[in-house]
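Sample 1 of the test manifest.
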Amino acid sequence: MEKLINEFSIGLFFWQLVLFVGLVLLLRKFAWKPILDAVEKRETGIDEALKSAEKAKLEMQNLQADNQKLLQEARMEREAMLKEARDLKAKMIEDAKGEAQNQANKIIEQAQAAIESEKKAAIAELKNQVANLSIEIAEKVVREELSSKDKQLKLVESMLGETTFN
Amino acid sequence: MRRKISLKPITLLLFLSTFFFYGQEEVEHIEAKPDKKTEIKEYIQHHLKDSYDFSLFSYEAESGEVKHISFPLPVILWDGGLRIFSSSKLHHGEAVAEVDGNFYKSYHGKIYKTDASGTIDYNEEHHPINEKPLDFSITKNVFTIFIIGFLMFAMFASMAKKYKRGNAIPVGVGRFLEPIVLYIRDDIAIPNIGKKHYKRYMSFLLTVFFFIWIINLLGLTPLGVNVTNNIAVTLALALLTYIITTFTANKNYWGHIFWMPGVPWPMKIILAPIELLGTLIKPFSLLIRLYANITAGHIVLMSIIGLMFIFKNWLGSSLSFGLAFALSLLELLVAALQAYIFTMLSALYFGSAVEEHHADH
């Protein structure tokens, strides 16, 4: 210990103190501050770049998901549209068919009604004509039968013959 | 660009080579050759000490003289006035330097005021009793810390310039240093101090980490500069930690020291001086830890290297070479580890100073 104290040099201590304090101050101004600042700037830059990359990636993913969703929607819409169209087609055909059937039925009905009425009219006409004809014939026959005295007598006779008196 | 960078080491070399030109050859006469063991022991002790000149290497000339190749550094003394002279005047403690009518002589790494003939009086414990002037010399260690300060400034300021230019990606030396800077920020400062306050302390933590680390690494080179094994250096660093802790501490910190919440009041009175002492012990442990680790490492490493010369046979020498090699690698780790520990503990102390809410005791 005594040797240690004996060897202690005030001069060296003094110079070391002066030099070191000077060195710290000088280096702080000319080296450490710019270096640390630059490093920090770089680090925040890297950090920001990483963060923005992450954000971009997320956005991209969102965009992709959106796209997917949009695509899905479009597909579904198309599907729906197709289905609707198909349904519409079927319905239209169905409707047309029904309509046609109805129309046909109606026409047939009308035709039948017309036929019926025509038939009735024809029958009525026929009846009239037959009646007229029979009256004419009957007239003619009567006229013929009753043209001569003999015949008239004969007729009366035959008729009387037919008629039995009971 | 590339061309510009490659120029830097060349200028540095040129800068250093100027010292080589001033490097002087000095001849030392050895009266009686001491045996190898004491020689190594002395060499180690000498190596751990600070010195007034920057010795590069020494060799034994054919004539049996030991020559030191070194360059002198300025000696600055305060002795009733500023006295500045070159350390070459001291001649490794062999000559008396005369400045403005005052005489100085270095003895065991310290400068004493003497008379013209350089007599040093000793007390009964063989300690010199001569007057010691206040010594602010640019010694080897001071020179080294200045070089390191300069290097660190050049290195980090050029690194910062590239960041300022808006280069988001580290280039050049920044590619190696940035992970360390970030490590100190993310794994030392933020977990210990907290996100809110850590920025205030970053300059100190970064500087102290790199300073200790570089200086420890330099201590492992054959240049033989050992700054962190000098208690004055570690004391200065720990003192700064203490000062920063004390002056940035909030109410909560002082409250915990002087009036510990959650304990009965007699305990509070007992705890206050203990806690107050604790604030001093914490940085004190910092300075001792760094000093002791590096000194011990150097002593062990150099002793093992010294063993190579003592064994003088192929088995022992190669074994101790292997050991020294392994230990050097370990010291490389220790160099970084001690810097890490110092920074980590400083951050921990700062963290306790600015802590806001304490969990219930």
